[in-house]
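B., you asked whether I could sanity-check this one before it goes into the benchmark set. Here's the sequence:
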Amino acid sequence: MDIDLKIGQVGSEVNSTIIIGLFKDTDLDNPGYSFLTSELREYLKGILALDDFKAGNDEVVTLYPQGLLPISRIILIGLGESETLNTEVIRCASGLAIKEVIKNGIMEVWAAIPGTGLSCIEPQDYAQASIEGMLLGGYSYELYKTTSEVKSKLKRITLVSGEKLHSDGILKGLQLGQITAEGTMTARDLSNAPGNGMPPQMLAAVARKMAAGNGLKCKILARGEIEKEGMGALIAVNAGSAEPPRFIILEYGDDLDRGDAIVIVGKGITFDSGGISIKPSGGMEEMKHDMSGAAAVIGAMQAISQLKPSIRVVGLIPATENLPDGKALKPGDIITALAGKTIEVINTDAEGRLVLADALGYAKRYEPAAVIDLATLTGACVIALGNMASGMMGNNKPLQDRVQKASEVAGERVWPLPIWKEHHDQIKSNVADVKNTGGRWGGALTAGAFLEKFVSYPWVHLDIAGTAYTESKQAYCPIGATGVGVRLLVELIRRWEK
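And here's what the prediction gave me:
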C-alpha cells in the first residue's frame, strides 16, 4: 500500500475518488475547507442545500458529479458536531468510507483533512486516525478462499491538506497510522488463522520471521527448555495435545536500561477445547481466537520495532493447545508454576491463567517497570462488559491510569474492575497454594486475583475475551478478529516516552 501526502487542493484530479468529512452546520466558506477547489466547493454547496446529507456520525453517501467536475466520485462522511469530534469518530467514518471504495473496485483514493479552524483534533491525530480507519476498514482475511470476494485491492491513499504549516505533523500521523494499522492487521491475521494452520510451532515461526524482518531479538523455548525453566503450568496444559508447546520471547532495545523494561504478555492458546472440562460444541470453532493476546503482542512488537522508542520492550508468549487426551491435565491435579507456587486445578478450561502464571513469573527476570498481560480469559468479563470494552485489573493505580488514557486515545476502551481480598479468598485451596477457579460468581475478578499471586511488580491485566473478535461487521472491522490491544500498547509505549 502506497500512502502519501499532498499539500494543496483536491477536486481537479481526473476520474478520481475523493473522501471528504463534513460536520453538522458545515460552512464551506470557512478557511478550514481551503483544500477544496472553487468548483468542488460550489458543487458541494448545491448538494448540502438539498439537506439530504445531515453529516451525522456513521453517515456516508457517494456522489457522482457526472461531468460537472473532473472527478468521478465524492464520498461524503459525517463527522457530527465539530466540538465533540474525537479520533474514534474519524476511524469509524474513514472505515465506512473505504468500504464504499473497495465495493466499487477503486484502487486509488484521495482523502481530505479538515483545517485547524474546523476541528478540535490536531491535524497529526486526524491523519493517524484516518489512515488507521481506512486500512483497517479495508482489511479482509482470504487466505483460505479459492475465489476472492474483493473486486480489487486498494493500492494508494493520498491525504490532502490545505495547510502547509502542519505538513510535518500530518506526515508523522500518516506514518504512525500506517504502522499501527499494519501491526493490528498482523494480529488479525494470526487470530483469524484456523487451529490447524497456526499451532504453537507455527506461531513461533511467524514470530521469529517478524522479528528477523524488524530487527528484534527472538528466542523460542521448546518443550525441553520450558521444562528446564520450571514452567510446570504450561507443560501441564500442553499434556493433552500432540502439538508441542513453545515459549516465545521477543525483545526490542536489549541494549537499553534493563530496569526500565516494559513487558507485554499474551495468552497463546492456539486452540482451546476446554481440555477434560470440555466446552459445548456450539461455537467451539471460535476458540481459534484464544491466542488473540499472543497475536496482539506480536503485532505490537512489530509496530514498536518500527517506531523505535527509547524504551526497552519485551514480549512474552506461552503457546500451546488445550485438548483432552489420556495424558491431559485433570480436575483435581496439582501442578507447580515457575514461581514455585502450587496450583490445584479445579477446571481445565481455566487454562489461560495457568500458562500466564508461568509467563508472569518469567517476566520478573527483566526487572520490569511495568507488565501488561492480554488474554481472552473469561466469559464472565464478556457478561459484565459485552464487546464494548476490555476488563482491566491490576495492582498499580498509576499504571492503570496510563493504560486507560492510552486506550481512550487508541479507541480500544478498557474498564477498571476490582481485585479485592474476597476474590483472593475465593481461590484459596485446601491442598495447594491456590486453586485455578473461584466458583461461578465474579469469575473475571477471581481470575485476576489468581494472576496477582504471580506478580511482584507494577502490573495490569487486560481481559479481552469480549473485544478480541466480533460476530458482526463493524465500521473498520469485518467479522472475526479485531486485533485489539495493538493500538493500545503502541500508544502506551509512545506516551511512556513523553
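One thing to flag: The chain has two domains: 2-165, 184-497. Otherwise nothing jumped out at me.
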